[in-house]
Amino acid sequence: MRTTQQKDDPTLQIEPGVPETTSIWQHHHILDIDDFTQEEIEHVFHTTQAMKEVMSRPIKRVPTLRGKTLITLFYEPSTRTRLSFELAAKNLSADVVSLSASVSSVAKGESLVDTLGTLQALGADIVVMRHPQSGAPYIATKYIEASMVNAGDGWHAHPTQALLDLYTIHEHRGSLKGLKAVIIGDIMHSRVARSNIWGLTTMGAEVTLCCPPTLLPAGLGRQHHHFPSVSIEPDIELALDGVDVVMTLRLQLERQQSGLLPSIREYIQLYQLTEARLARAKPDALVFHPGPVNEGIEISPAVAHGPQSVINEQVTNGVAVRMALLYILAGSQKQ
Fold first, then answer.
1. Which residue in 97, 183, 248, 301 is a FRET match for 207, CA 20 to 30 A apart?
2. pLDDT in tens, 263-275
3. Handedness of CA 100, 133, 202, 292 (dihedral sign)
4. Residues 203, 200: Cα–Cα separation, whole Å
5. 79-118 burial string, b = 16+ CB within 10 Å, else e?
6. What confidence score (pLDDT) does residue 222 get?
7. Would you call 256 exposed, middle or buried from its count of C-beta atoms within 10 A (0-12, 13-18, 19+)?
8. Is the CB of residue 243 less than 8 Å from the CB of residue 308?
9. What phi, psi does 240 have (nearest 5°)?
10. Domain covering 159-304: architecture
11. Burial level of 292, CB count in 10 A (0-12/13-18/19+)?
12. How far is CA 118 from CA 68, 121, 149, 181, 293, in A?
């Protein structure tokens, strides 16, 4: 049962040690992290640490977003991301409304613009949207006053996944500067890879991409003004040599039918992260996967559940990072 002190204690509303949002944060929306500064990402880290402290309490709820309405609008299936956002919002005492396109008027042909108009009329303060079309959240910002959070748009971006990955590295290593990271798998179709490339390079890490040539976006591997500089190494053994961070990506099995891969069996032989291959990385290298995991395809069960895996930590940190982002966005709305 909540005591009066727990209910009214102002320290539950603003965690001690969290830097002022107004002096650092420059975003009304979170669409990608390609325009985030290092200071803004560090501000997310600092705020996330305060939110993890909240999550460690017997009562994991503070009144920070009381009176705010968060709406999740998902045009694609999601388990981890959607539940993570909803739990984060509830931990901050926001009112949460969940809208799935498959059971809404969208299924009857309602346009995105009309749906956004409805959300605006309902008084949404923050809208978390996942959409199959790249760029949809950017268009949405033109039709709604609420803060828009991109929970994944097509192949383009997944900023909150990248931020929780960066935070998990930060927790283990303290600094990302100078770390060597390799991203293995379907780079072309991965919004997680794109956002992580931006985040890792912004924080000073060196990034290598490892995948079949047919799954590599055109233009990567050389200096390009639209994308940070990365290295390409198609040989997984060479790519893993001495790295600090290993990020494996879900192989979307439909790619086999599209002719981009000879066979799943060949992909497993050439690109599955196994214990033997992981041994080429540093002994304390961290293993990531955004989920859902196709065990036995992109990563072996022994590695996925091994001592170097931080896959479960990613899920836990995802709630804290999204709590931090909602807190920061709510603060920016007061400006």
1. 301
2. 889 999 999 999 9
3. positive
4. 5
5. eebbebbbbbbbbbbbbbbebbbeeeebeeeeebeebbee
6. 54
7. middle
8. no
9. -85, -10
10. 3-Layer(aba) Sandwich (3.40)
11. exposed
12. 17, 5, 17, 43, 36
Domain 4-154+316-332 listed as CATH 3.40.50.1370:
yes
What whole-number distance in Å separates Cα of residue 202 and Cα of residue 210? 20
Helix (H/G/I), strand (E/B), else coil: 137: helix
Q: Tell me the pLDDT tens digit for each residue of 293-315.
A: 999 999 999 999 999 999 999 99
pTM exceeds 0.85: yes
pLDDT band, residue 124 (cuts 50/70/90):
very high
**In one letter, which amino acid is 168?**
T
Q: Determine the residue type at 181.
A: A
d(CA 2, CA 180): 46
Please list the alpha-helical segments (H only) found in the chain.
4-8, 21-24, 38-55, 80-91, 112-121, 136-140, 159-173, 191-202, 236-240, 254-257, 264-271, 275-278, 301-304, 311-332
Domain with CATH 3.40.50.1370 in the chain: 4-154+316-332, 159-304
